[in-house]
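pinging the channel bc i need a second pair of eyes. not urgent but kinda urgent?? the chain im working w is below, pasted from the shared doc
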Amino acid sequence: MRHVLSNPISNIQMEFAVLRVPFFLEPHYDESKPFIESNRDRLIKKWGGKKGWEQQKNRHGLKGRGEAAGIPHFNLDRLASNSMASHRLIQHVGKRYGLDISEALYDRLNVYYFVEGHALNDKPRLASVAAESISQSLAKNNNNTSQALMSEKEILEFLNGNEGRLEIENALRALNQLGVHGIPKFIVEGSTVIDGAAGPDTFVRIFREIEQRGKVEGTAIFKDILGVDEETLSRGSYSRESLLMEDAS
């Protein structure tokens, strides 16, 4: 997205709306526990021992893919947990403040989990980090929302509740019906499915085709399932202006 937005080939102002669809790597994890195990232990068990895990890392080039995504170091001992609460929070923030704010929170939680190693179901810690992220993003983006800023206490109450659970469960069922059993996956214009193993050139080619066409054909197929309205979707997540603001900060 950054490359296409920073290097336009037409007079059309491209913008992107990213709608995060929840997916559970370990759906059986107990929601009542802050964490279950380290990710290292989880993956060693998954791949049948240390040798299998090393082979899997080398096969998929996880380190290089992480560096390309802006994650220079994966904390292999990060605490793995149930992620229902964090998924609910991301969706709630997007609908309340806009997809640009939920994307900023998503990016922060990537660092929180993959780099700092904290559990996504450590609700008090998650509430503290989320409150700070939302406040900073709203201030930086000059977001004109009429919604009041969520306090750390309000976020913790949300995390301890059930609001948004049905939408997450419906999305998981829809993914299963579509035959999506692994991540990452990307759905562009509601129809083009791109596997997470695809390189940057694949995305640039598809985005350039849309740019040259001058319009988007289709829409986010999960927006109704997740309860995201057209107005929120139309405001988008990323634009050339937002990238310039990010670079200047």
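so The CA atoms of residues 32 and 146 lie 34 Å apart. and The chain is about 55% helix and 5% strand. — does that match what u expected or am i reading it wrong
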